[in-house]
């Protein structure tokens, strides 16, 4: 039942984290016990111990994260898949065209679509101009 759960797997991979959490809780209970019986020194020691245990637990979490990241980067494996930007752009344009054809587009969206088309055309013109080594000469200001 618990042998294959994600929590048990993480506890086996990173044993210092649950140990730190347990020690933090123990220190907190020790401090609470001192407060209950009005033993100020015990309460103070418990709170200081809690802060130390909490800090060590955070250090363990960060340490495991750093080492896990190093292992992943050395192996060259990532969980991210590459994005095909051309396909994504084509699908977005097809969706825009479909919405325009159905008339499901608000006036504000029509403005944005028109602006995007103008920007694409300007970008295409600049790419073409750069590819044939033609530079546009700016008009003189009046």
Structural class: mainly alpha
- What is the CA-atom radius of gyration, in angstroms? 31 Å
The low-confidence parts are none
Amino-to-carboxy terminus distance: 81 Å
Output mean pLDDT: 83
Order of helices and strands: HHHHH
- Characterize the overall form: elongated
Strand count, sense and barrel status of the largest sheet are:
none
Q: Please give the count of helices.
A: 5
Helix content: over 70%
Number of strands: 0
Beta content: under 5%
Describe this structure as you would to a colleague.
It contains 5 helices and no strands. The chain has 142 residues and is mainly α. α2 (16-36) runs antiparallel to α3. It starts with 5 loop residues before the first helix and ends in an 11-residue tail after the last helix.
Outline:
With 142 residues, the chain is mainly alpha-helical.
